[in-house]
Each structure stands twice: as C-alpha cells, then as structure tokens.
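Quick one: structure for this chain?
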Amino acid sequence: MLRLLKYLKPFTAMIIAVLAFVFLQTLSDLYLPTLMGDIINKGVMQGDTGKIMQIGGLMLWVAGGGVVCAIIASYLSSKIAVGLGTILRNRVFSRVESYSLHEIDKFGTATLITRTTNDITQVQMVLIMIMRMMISAPMMAIGGIIMALRQDRQLTWVLAIAIPVLAGVIALIASRMIPLFRKIQGKIDRINLVLREKLVGIRVIRAFNMVAHEAKRFEDANVDLTDNYIKVNKIMAFMMPSIMLVMNFTSLAVLWFGGIFISKGNMDLGALSAFTQYAMQIMFSMLMLSLMFIMVPRAQAAAVRINEVLETNPGITDKEKVEGSFTQKGFVEFKNVTFTYHGAEQPAIRDITFSAKPGEVTAIIGSTGAGKSTLINLIPRFYDVDSGSILIDGVDVREMSQETLRAKIGFIPQQAVLFSGTISENIRFGNQQASEAEVRHAADIAQATEFIETIDGGFEHEIAQGGTNISGGQKQRLSIARALVRKPEVYVFDDSFSALDFKTDARLRAALKPETAEATVIIVAQRVGTVRDADRIIVLNEGQLAGIGTHKELLDSSQVYREIVSSQLSEEEIA
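Got it. Here's what it folds into:
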C-alpha cells in the first residue's frame, strides 16, 4: 500500500493541514481531563462556583475548538482519499488501455473490473481512516501516557500491564483475519466472473435451459464469499468483547488502587478523575489502532492487486524513435511471419508470405482454426509476430507508432461490437469529424440506411449496450459503415459478411468496389461466394499457406481450396 501513497504528492499541502488539525484536536482532547480535574479540586471541593464557571467556560472553548478541528480534518482527509481514488482509477484505466490482448487475456476481464472499482474503493476507505485514526491514535496514546504519568506515577503501572495485554489480543485477532481478507478479494473476482458470464450469455443460458445450473454456479460463488465474511465477522465478534473486557478491568483497577491512594492521602479526587479519563483515552486509542489493523490488511491485499496492474508493462509499445515518413500508400506485406499464442505448443500461423496492394481485393479462406483471424489481428498489431515482419507502406509495423498504424486501417471485427449511444454516434466512432452527409453516405454503402429509416428516430435511434436491440446483420452493417466513414488506406473485413443474406451480401460488395477502389481490401470469409471474385485468394490450412491465386487458379492447384469449394458449391456451379 505504501507504493500507492506516491500518488498523494498533489495533496501535500492538504496532508500537512490534516496533520495540523489532528494535532490540535488531540491537544484539546488531552487537555480536557486536566481541566475536569481542576474543576473537581479547585471548584467542587472548595465550593467555589466562580472557579467552576471559569474553568468550565475554558473547557467549552477547548471542546469547541477540538470539534472544529475534527470537522476540518475529516473533510480534508476525505477529499485526499477521494482524490487518490480518482487518480488510481484513471491510472489503472489508462494502463489497461495500453495493454496488448495478451496482458488482458492474462488478467481476465472480471478481475480488471474488480481491481478498478472494489479494490480502489477499499484503499480509499482505509486512507480516510489512516488520515484520521492512525495519526491521532498514537498521538493520543503517547500524550495520554505522558499526562497520566504527570497525574500519578504509581497508577501508571496498571497501564503498563493493561497495554501489552490489549496489544496481544489485537495481534492474535489480526493474525487470524489477514489471510481471510486476502481470500475475500479473490472471491469477489469469482462472483464478478460468474455474474458477467451470466449476463453476457443470457440468451445461450435460456436457450439450453441452463438457468438453474447458472443459478447454482452463482450460489456456490456467493456462499463461498459469504462463508469467508462469516469467518471474519466471528473473529470480529470476539474482538470487541475481549477489548472491552480488558478496558473495563483496567478502569476497575485504576479506581480500586486510586481509591486506596486517596484514602492514604497520596492522591486527590481530581487527579483520579483525570487519570481515569487518560486511561480510557489510551485504551480507546488502542481500540482505534486495532480497527486499523483489521482494515489495513484488506486494503493491503487490494493495493497489491492494483500494483500488479500498474506495474505490468504492456507487451506492445512504441519505440522511442518511430518512423513517420512513407513512400507508399496502402501496401501490406507479410514476410515469413510466424506467430504463437502465449502458452500454446504449436504456432498458430507459420512462415506466411504474401502482399496486398491498393485497388486489389485479397481474400483469406480456410477451415475453422486455420489461423485466418490470427493473421489479420497481426496487421493492426494487436499481437507482435514471433519471427518475420509485417510491412505497411514499406515500413515494419513495429517501427511506426500504434496510433499512426491504426489510423491507416479500417478494421471490421468478426464479432460486431457497438456501443451505447445513437446510430450516428456509433458510425462516427470511426471518424469523430465526419459530417452528417458522410455518415449517411457510409450507411448507404453498408446497406444500413434501409433499416435505419424504418426504426424510430432514424440515425438518432438509441443503441442498447452491446447492440442487443438490433439484429446480428444490422450490427455488421453498422460496423462496416463505421470503418467506411474513416476512409482508411487498408480495409480489413474479418468474416464481416457472415450474418448477411446472399442478396444483401452481393449488393454490399458491389457498392464497396467503387468506394474502396484506391484502398487495399483484405477479406476473411467462410463463403466461397464472398471470395471467388477477389484478385487474390490466400488459402490457409493448419496455420500454413496451402495456396495463393485466383479462384480458377486455385481450383487447379490447391486440393484444400477445391475441397472447400466442393463442400459449398455443386459441380455445375464449380464448372
């Protein structure tokens, strides 16, 4: 957790102010018992009402000042903690955004959400307590011991016995609770994972009548978390009576021995009253510290998880000196590219070499798992190649900045992803400066205007989160429009026509031709009908090239391609 405190530098002046107000509040709290003893000794015992009023008035001023200091300190400490939470959330979000897909896969979506929300909240809450309790409690305890010694040195031996006993009880309880708090954060991750899968996959769950099964999964995760919380609360339930028992025995011992000292004339009543209050202040300071020892371990576990995110460097970064000048436009070239997913035994693709030029359509086809999507995910540098190189406009993608590289590419993923907002906003996601005419033109080319104009609001129709209120084909067409409005040098279609009927598919590809005449088009598809008119077809089989050529050339030269064609077309259609 100490490593996270480096982000408190912007609040240095505010922290100093909190320390000052806490110090003033502590002084007022320590001074009040002495004033109370003075009232008893100088006023009540002598029957001096004026003295009582004088010292009582001073007590009111001191108490009022302590209240004002406490309020200001609480406000400033809350502001510091909330500020740190804001900084941490921004830092974690920015760091996750910079991750490659490998780092995101390694952590997992559920735990990244938990670390950005729940874990930071835990640190934020404990920081408020640290600024108030962990600073004031030691000051109160030390000051109380000093003031108690001033009142009576002999009675202080009661505290010398009580404080170690209380510290031992706190240490025993904390040692039992720390491992449980570390487990709890992992259990919260598990609940988030199950809940997220349930919400995202609700259609599949209902379609297969697995509602009861998923409810059982969530119940198991929930009960597991609950059991851990119950264990923690059982220990906490034991803590408070134990601490109160020690405090009550301490108070009883102080009064017992104090009464003996008074009867012998070695102590007056005012000193005993002040000493009793100092003893309780010391005990309550220990109680506050015990609460900190309970809360800090959980925040420490959360801080470790936050640090893991902040200290994990992205696997894909820009070089210090990047290439910014290009002699070509829209040229894509693979040179002996091999790539292996982390933890995999075999490369997903190996020794791939081909080129794609502006004004041409390059299609990639192959069986499921052949490496088609893997191949095109390397173009925008979602992953880095193991060996070989990928060149865009004659420059290795690793030599240019990621922003420059991705500005050249219009990427339409296999799974169409839309964001909450209007249809117009989703299309403009590809180009924030696009005019209304450009948005409509992109929708026309993508064959999306026909359904947009039939729904309420047209281009201002609200898309639900994940695009759940429109069909799969409509989502694909909006994704294509989003790429078209960008007007990139390279279009990458990752099986982006799979949800379209043959008629819409044909119309869309016909409309795309003049629109992408000067750009490089790379299409991944399962349908032979989608790729047969391409200028170049790349056939993949088990991650390797199984042929490159036109449709007619591959029918004669590639057995793999002929098998794919035969599985989709009749002999008459092939001929």
